[in-house]
Each structure stands twice: as C-alpha cells, then as structure tokens.
Write a structure and sequence with these properties.
Blueprint lengths: L1 E3 L6 H13 L28 H11 L1 E7 L2 E14 L2 E11 L8 H16 L3 E6 L3 H10 L1 E6 L9 E6 L1 H15 L20
Parallel strand pairs: 4-5
Antiparallel strand pairs: 1-2, 2-3, 3-4, 5-7, 6-7
Helix pairs in contact: 1-2
Length: 203
C-alpha cells in the first residue's frame, strides 16, 4: 500500500488515479464529474466528465492518499483530510474511496479502513465521513464501519440529503483491543491488558 501526503503522490500513480476516477465516475450519484461547483443542485446541467479534472487536481493537492496496487496496477485508493473541523471538533475526514470494478469484493475496502483507523489512532482523533443519500453504495459501506451522526435534509437539492457518519476514538480503541485479544485467543500465554506489574482491582 502507498500512503502519500498532499501533493506527494508519484506521477505514475497520479495518472492511474485520474484514469480510475474517470472509469468510476458514474458509480457515484451524482457523478464525481458534476461536483466541481459548490452548492450545485442541478445535476443534469453538465456534460460527462466536465468536473473530473478539477476534482482530481484538488484531491492530489490537498488530500492524503492511500493506494492499493494489484498486478503492478492501481486497484483502488482512499483519500482523507486532517485536520477537518466539524461541530467544533477536529476529525480525520474520509472524502473519497474508489475501487476498480474488477477488484471489488476482494477486501480492498477493509484494507482502506484498517489504514484509516491506524492513522486516526496515531493522531488521536475520531473519523468523519459524509455522503449523499442518493449514493446507496456508499451509504451501505459506511453503515458497516461507522455510526450515523447527522442528516441535512435536501442539503444538495430536493431529495438529496447530506448524511454524516462518525467513528469515535473510543470505538477505534475498543475495536483495536478486540482484534488484539482475538489474535492471541488460541495462545496459552495471552497479553495482559494490565500495565507491567499491575494488579486487577477487586470488584
């Protein structure tokens, strides 16, 4: 996996990322190519791919990008921003996740999530994502990993709500602890959750 700070993705991968965005444009509702105009509500007024270049350039310039390669070719990527302010708190904000059609259902989403969670725990901050209610694929994916935090009805036009999803730092730490215990579940000597030399308090 590649992990690139804003503006540092190699030229070759950046080119593949642009090609992948173009291929998967219509997988999003509304398409990514129609998101260049902030506050736009008339999604049928633009031609296909008119906004992909602007979307792509903003992404590689401002976002941290995680890439996954399969068979020496970009199979998918996830982009996030930090710090992102929402309701007076700093978040790691996940903006975009795209997987090539031929690599879907091959565990790439789980790979993105593990990498994002590790970054958030290192930064000691919660994770935020948002999508539009019309993007059913994203709504389903986010519901597996996060809790619904807020809904702005008709925020992007009639019948198009903005839905916010949050994973708190406590939740991240709890899941990490469960993974650790599961990893050592079949070992005779398991790691202690107590500090070295510590004793459990009586109930």
């Amino acid at each position: 996996m590649g992990h690139y700070k804003p503006g540092q993705i190699p030229v070759g991968e950046a080119k593949e990322l642009f090609e992948l965005l173009t291929r998967c444009d219509k997988d999003f509702t509304p398409p990514l190519s129609q998101r260049a105009a902030v506050g736009q509500t008339d999604w049928d007024s633009q031609g296909a791919n008119t906004g992909i270049k602007d979307y792509y350039e903003s992404l590689i310039e401002k976002a941290t990008i995680i890439t996954v390669t399969r068979n020496n070719k970009l199979a998918g990527f996830c982009a996030y921003y930090y710090p992102y302010q929402w309701q007076g708190q700093s978040y790691l904000y996940v903006s975009t996740a795209v997987t090539a059609p031929e690599w879907r259902k091959h565990g790439l989403t789980n790979a993105y999530v593990r990498h994002i969670c590790t970054a958030a725990m290192r930064l000691k901050c919660p994770i935020l994502a948002k999508t539009w209610s019309t993007n059913k694929q994203s709504m389903t994916a986010l519901s597996r990993y996060a809790d619904r935090a807020d809904t702005l009805c008709d925020d992007r036009g009639v019948g198009i709500d903005t839905v916010y999803w949050e994973t708190t730092l406590d939740t991240l730490l709890y899941r990490a602890a469960r993974r650790t215990l599961k990893k050592y579940a079949h070992m005779k000597s398991r790691p202690s959750l107590l500090p070295k030399g510590g004793k459990a308090r009586p109930a």
